[in-house]
Amino acid sequence: MSKEADLESDVEEPGGDRPAWSRWVIIGGAMLAVLLIGAAIGVFATRLTDGDDSAAATPGAGSVEVGFAQDMSTHHLQAVTMANWARDHTTDPEVKQLAFDIESTQTEQVGRMKGWLMLWDQPEQATGAYMTWMTEPMGHGMQMATLSPGGGAPMPGMATDAELAKLRSLSGRAMDVYFLQLMLRHHEGGTAMAQYAQEHSSLPAVKALCQSILTSQGAEMDQMKLMLQARGAQPLPAS
């Protein structure tokens, strides 16, 4: 399946509440993660045996850990798709390198999360609404409003079908700028979700992944802000 086909999802699935792009998320997730799941299981199994009681702690449906792994995988896979598109269509070396870095990092993280879900005997994607696992107050001054998507986006920071269509319609500098704007907003939403999971999970492996997301995406957000400034553009409003 081509990357162009991955981005073409303008028709809503009948009988479901989720947008049409969720179909390619499921397919893309299987393709992207299949080579990484074995390694993820090995790493996670090692972590589980590091404590006296941790091996017995298996998160269940509705838990922060399962919800985070399911929803963040979906969130990451849209970033991977946008990064692949930008990498293949830009002529700007800085944008191409950033897109490659995002695709590589988030593909590995998706593989790790899908490995956990396999270990926990949970589906790769939950049915029903997103983010139902986020119900408690957040620390560090972050409000739950930060985690409320707007404008038709399924989760914080995610692009809508119309925005994805606009991205693939552009070329040159206009495409580079819009990619940076969409990805910066995407990262902002993802880091808010990772911060919540880090604060509310008691599982060391999940907390470690959340910290990795916060560190890598924090650095990339700083970089994208500078790249936008250098190109005379501003970030998009939060979604």
Distance linking N and C termini: 29 Å
The helix tally amounts to 8
Number of strands: 0
Runs in which pLDDT lies below 50 for 5 or more consecutive residues are 1-16, 48-56, 140-146
Task: Please state the average pLDDT score.
Answer: 81
Q: What report would you give on this structure?
A:
This protein has 239 residues and is mainly α. It is built from 8 helices and no strands. Helix 4 (64-89) runs antiparallel to helix 7 (172-200). It starts with a helix and ends in a 9-residue tail after the last helix. Residues 1-16, 48-56 and 140-146 have low confidence and may be disordered.
SSE inventory with pairings:
Blueprint: H1 3-7, H2 22-33, H3 37-48, H4 64-89, H5 93-119, H6 161-169, H7 172-200, H8 204-230
Short description:
By secondary structure, the protein is an all-alpha fold. It contains eight helices and no strands.
Descriptive terms for the model:
8 helices, mainly alpha, 239 residues
